[in-house]
User: Fold mRNA export factor GLE1 from Jaapia argillacea MUCL 33604.
Amino acid sequence: MRFSAPRSLSPEPRRRQPRKSFTFGLPSDDEDYDSSDESQASGSDSEYSSSSSSSSSASAEYETDSEVAGISRRPARGRSAAEQRYIEDTIASIRLRTRHKDPYEEWQKQLKHDSLATARREQASIRTQRHTEQTQAEKERKERLAALHRKQMEEVQSRLSSLELQRKAEEDKLREGWKLRDKRLWERIEAVIKVEEDKVRAKLEAARKIQEEAERKKREEEEKRRAEEEERKREELERRLKKQKEEEERQKKAKEEEEKRKEEEMRKAKAEMLKQEENERQTLGLTTAEEDWRFARETLKKLKGGPMKNVKSNKELKSEWGRLRREITPKIGQLTNNAREINRISQQLVDLIRPRAGSDLYYACLSSLAKAILLQCETEVTAEKRSALPLVQVTINMLSTLPDFSSIFWAKLCQRAGPWPVPFVIPSTDVDGTKFTDAERRKALGYREEESRVEYGNRLCGIMRLYFLILFANVQSPLDKMFQMQRYWVWFARMLGEGQLLDSSVALLLMHTGLDVGGLDAKHAFGRQWIKMLGLLYEGVTTGFGGSAERLIGGQTPEGRAARVRVQLQVERIMTSE
Assistant:
């Protein structure tokens, strides 16, 4: 049996006429078959329309199965199961053929796409090369033009210089002529004036001699009368002084006995207090001023005799240490008061030093870092107080990040500032028992060579401002005990307890710096105890301890008097502030 499927009724664009049907058709016997066939064909055709372009062009002839089935209908008749299966297989084979994708066409399409991309890359490369060549040619043209301009400018400058020299020579010649004329004129004028002055001088000299003679006689008479009066007063004064001296000796003897009794009582009370303080320190883990100073000196000596000595004796380590030190110092000098810049430089320093942790080179780098910070502080902070802020932040970052930096920084701080960060009176012998020479003691006090006392005080103020700012800084994790806020209280308590240090005007300069940095914060932190401390300090700078002018802090030097006024004003400012 033969079946045929009709073509689509849509005409071609050129003919606008219906195409002839296929030689086989798909007749249906009843309407139910036709509708079910149309629904199946429409579902498959919608799936087919989303495939490739070649399939869509082929399916244009058969929009739906309803069109295929509706073109030529034959009289309805019953179909056998074999016929029905044959029709379905025929439709399925047609659909499979229309959905077929040709690999050659796909390869050709991809080849066109790759060729276009290659052509675009080559065009971009050629365009870039041409642009570079044009830029280079323009640059060479500008250089030639600039060279020509320079040459012309040099010729003009040379000509102008020769003209300027010629003009100066003419001016000098005229100026010399005028000077010679003025000189001769003034010589004649001065000769006339000198003659007149000699005449007047002779008259004045004669009058002066007459007046001096009269004054001499009057003075002799006055001196004779005064001598007699002074002799009388002297004898009366001697009698009064003799009587007063006897009374003073009696009072002095009584006062000495009273003072000895009080000193003995104070000595016993102080001994008991020191014993109690020693027990409390041992309980709380606190240290004395001497222990803090000895720790700094011992750390410094270990650093110099160990890591520093090993690094300097090894040529390779010394060269590497020099390179790292040259990288550390500029970074400290580049600091600005910018949080991002401070964090960037801090991270660079940590990345530079921390990989060498535990080695001799690591400790040598920590020493160089501490020295760079203190030197920058001596130069910058002494001139401008606000420049200490970025240094403080970098120092805190290093103290909280680099192991063992706290002890080395404390040792270098006591080396540059002497005993003042403790504070402490340096003994006559070093920690190893050797006696200090004058030069060694001056060096241990923090003095530089040929440094005056004023320069010394100003430099220490810059260093101690950095230290005080570290004590009051907000930190994410606690620092070493030498750099915690309670050290501020300890510093002032030790300072006011060392009479030998209080005789120096440097003590007043450093206390003024400390009050300027953290006096008000200490008032909020320590409360009434800090107010008592300020009261004792105020007494020492105004009336002297115990009301004695001999016990004024800072002594009687001009620097001490000026520093006392500044400390007094600082205490008053803190007490009147909320």
